[in-house]
Each structure stands twice: as C-alpha cells, then as structure tokens.
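fyi for ur records
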Amino acid sequence: MQRKSVQIGSRGVGAGESCFVIAEAGINHNGSLETAKKLIDASVEAGADCVKFQKRTVDVVYTQEELSRPRQSPFGETNGDLKRGLEFGVDEYREIDWYCREKKILWTASCWDEGSVEFIDSFNPPFFKIASASLTDDNLLRHHRVTNRPIVLSTGMSTLQQIRHAVDVLGGTKDLILLHCTSTYPSSPEELNLRVIESLKEEFDCPIGYSGHEVGLQTTLAAVALGSCVIERHITLDRAMWGSDQSASVEPQGFTRLVRDIRVVEAAFGDGIKKVYDSELPIIAKLRRVGA
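which gave:
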C-alpha cells in the first residue's frame, strides 16, 4: 500500500524519497548539556536528518513508589534521583534548540506525558516521536494529535491489533509514520523480524520505517532494503559509557558508516526498468560473439 508521503520540515518522507535518518540521542547525554551538544555534533557529522531527545514530567510518568525505589546511579540512591538527574528543563532545551538551528539539523523529542507534549510543542518541532511504550496510552496519543504536527510512532511490544487501535485513536494515517521495532536493549537478530516491515506496508496507508536497538549495522541496512522510509538508531559517544541505552547505541564512527551505506543502498535501488548501460557497451563488444 504505502501511498502517502509525510512532510517533515522541507523533506518529504515516503516511498520514492530519500530515507529520513533519526539519531536518537535520547537520555544518552546522562544529564549533561555538554554531552548533548557533542551528540548533536556527531549526528550532524554523520549526516543524520534529525536528532531526537526524550522528555518526561517525572512526577507524572512515575508513581512515588517507583521514584522512591532504591537504585544506585551517579545522581543518588533512588530511582527518582536517577530520573530527575536525566531530565533537561527549559534552559537546556532552549540551548538545544538554538544549537540545532546553528548546526542546521532538525530536532524533536519523545514525550511521555501530556505536559511534556505541550513543553516540546512550544519549541515548534517538525514532528513528534511517540515511543513504543506509549502506543497504548490513548489519551497521550490524542494529545499529540491536537498539535497538528506529523507523528512518528514506534510499534515495539505491540500486537497488530494494538497498532490498528492506536492508528484509529490517532484518527487515521494522515501525517503518520509507523516504525517497526523490537523493544529489547539490545535486540537479538532472531527477534528483529524485519519482514514485519513488509506486513505493515501492506496493512497501513502511510510510510513505514524501522527503529533498531540491535548491535551492529547490517540488519538496519536490511530494513532499508525492505523499504523503510525512516531509520532511527540510538547514538552514543561511547557504548561503554554509563547508562541503560548505551549498549544498544551506535558510536559516531559507526553512525557515519550507517548513513553512508544507507545512501549507497538507495543509489543502488534504481528505477526498476531493465536497461543496458553505456558502461556495458564496451563489454558487449568484447565478450558477446552471438546476437545483437
């Protein structure tokens, strides 16, 4: 199916368009604005189209019981210390917004609650990303739609029935992009099930992409070959850094290779019309002995 295209910034995203690459900085900044800027720099240098962060209102997303649970981290001894330590506020996001404009790269965020949607919306993002964990949160889905911005929705941890329901709650596939995803960090190749990309293309009249959490780049390139219009991978400065998402992330050099190889694969697709290239004519003259 996959007939619709979605406009993100100055880019069309959909079949026949160049693959839109999202560098998921997420919480890999570990609460440091300096590290966040380095992740933005790495995303720009790699050739990504967009860098993405995550935004939560901690006391809304988590219960007090969850926040008080013991958990050692660089920020303290409780889960609440960790969650609050990883959150950026308005000053940090103003700086991120300014820095991304200076570096000429788009940015957005996954918002985990309605207040965070309103917060990020104030920065005029080109689209919203909805995480797999929020796919079943009907109220949050509806709140995203009120912004009238394009939505990229990951589908990890979800059945096809749940995805259909989420699309219905969102009011259909207008300005919607779905990402196939397996929400294990990192994911094993045996559980990536990349053929679901083809299944989603048959089921939904919108662009389909891929959000990967695997180690390595090969399977992400396979997702491009299967027709993914959007690719999202986590980016990190160093996979050995402290943090829950670092091991499922791609370091700057690897992200550069990934974007380069995506563009090579795209160039190799061609137009599907069988032809004889001018570069083949001397080979014909040299090797063919029979026939025209």
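The first strand starts at residue 6 and ends at 8. thats all i got for now
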